[in-house]
Amino acid sequence: MMKRLGLGLLIIGLAVFLFLPSPGRAAGDAVETAPAFQALGKLDKALQTGDMNRADRAFDAYKAWWLKNKNEIKKQSLTASSQIEQQTANISIALLNDQKEDVAQALKTLEDLLTQYKEGAFADTNPGEKASLSTYIKKLESTKTLIKEKKWPEAEQHIRMLQQEWLTVEGDVVSQSQTVYTESEKNLVLLSAYIAQPDSREKALPLIEDMINALKPLAATKYGLIDAAMIPLREGLEALLVVGALLSFAKKAESKRANRWIWGGALAALAVCLGIGCLVSFALSSLAFSQNNALINGLSGVLASVMLLYVSYWLHRNADIKRWNAFIRAKSEKAITNGRMMSFAAIAFLAILREGIETVIFLIGMVGRMSAGQLIGGIALGCAALAAIGVLMLKVGVKLPLKPFFLVSSFIVFYLCFKFMGSGINSLQMAGILPSAVENYLPSVPFLSIYPSWYSTAPQALFLAAALVTVLNNLRLKWSHALKTKEAS
């Protein structure tokens, strides 16, 4: 059965590859920015002399340049276009209200943005070329300089840009080092939190230095078949554990209907991932999709986590052989109710959606970095490995005695529930839905998706408390039953 999942992932990978625009296709050279800098220089001098009429004329000259070129810049870089547009609007409003300090601040930011655009620092500039990890590191270096100079508003803006553009390079990182990938994603949230809190700003500099040092060795690495294979294998393994546990349970219960529901949820998620891959390929850049991706990952992670908590409890509860036998005898083939089957389908859908979207985006990022044969071969190899692991899981799971099967399954599901909650909250913080607030006294264990923020730590702590109460209560009932049996004999 798990071969279907591996085949589905392979089809998605191949389809995304085939639907992608060719690496050589896309926008022209960067727009000439000299007239813009000249006009903005005149605006700056006018502000210093207090000549607001001259400032207005200089800004009109800049706006004429912007109206002429903004569509071309937008084609080359959606991020550059939107950020330049925002600062242009800020200057217009500040000039209208005669707010010289606000004009000066927005002017400095605008000049920085135009300099970055001119130097090709925006990840989606010239979309015919793939976003470069080296370019991303240059942006980190630029942000580091701003932090050193204590230019906090500019540094905060740069960090937001780094968060948005992370999706364009994270495939490069995760294909080489899961540890660096996890740490970097965590550090992007921490940087935002440290800059926002004046008493924590001194921690931002060593943190961004660590991030740069970790990413630099990966920037010059060449990619091959194994790198492409590791993406579906790494990203699909956790989803496979969820679906495998559900399918093993359905097989134990001899419920074909439950099996169909689980497969229906899994295949529906694969279809959605394929659709999103095509959307990103045809209509959007991966950068434009990055914030939506973080939001989808966050929401699906949190929802899947809550549902998996219930499944973990249910599996642990049915580890009692007498309870399981009574459950099966009472309802036979209909032992798994329609509501529970729908919840199983939803869990399979959310688990695969969460991992599948990242897999598709990562694979899109690999196009153009290796030969087509290596990429397709790598996808096939990774999916074949996933399918083999899935088949092994089903065979071993079915052969396990009931009690060990349910205990092991409940532990695996709880682990994923715990991890999905932490990573889901972290993704929502990356998307800006939740504040990037951190506390220094809280632990940080990225491998388990434990981050130093109460937004993620609090629900994880509640999950642990609920698990502990459940285990202790079951032990109490077991001991009580054993004691009554002993007294009766």
Commentary on this structure:
There is one protein chain. This protein is mainly alpha-helical. The protein folds into three domains: 31-119, no CATH class; 133-221, no CATH class; 233-454, no CATH class. It is built from 17 helices and no strands. The longest helix is centred in the last third of the chain and has 35 residues, at 454-488. Mean pLDDT is 77; it is low at 16-28, 125-130 and 331-335.
Give the structure's gist in a few sentences.
The chain is an all-alpha fold.
Order of helices and strands: HHHHHHHHHHHHHHHHH
Query: What is the β-strand count?
Result: 0
**Integer-rounded radius of gyration:** 27 Å
Q: The biggest beta sheet, please?
A: none
Domain module count: 3
Please tell me what the overall shape is.
elongated
Descriptive keywords:
489 residues; mainly alpha; 3 domains; 80% helix
What is this structure's SSE topology?
Elements (H helix, E strand, L loop, with lengths): L1 H18 L14 H16 L2 H25 L1 H19 L3 H19 L14 H16 L3 H23 L3 H19 L7 H16 L5 H28 L3 H27 L3 H32 L3 H11 L6 H29 L5 H28 L2 H29 L23 H35 L1
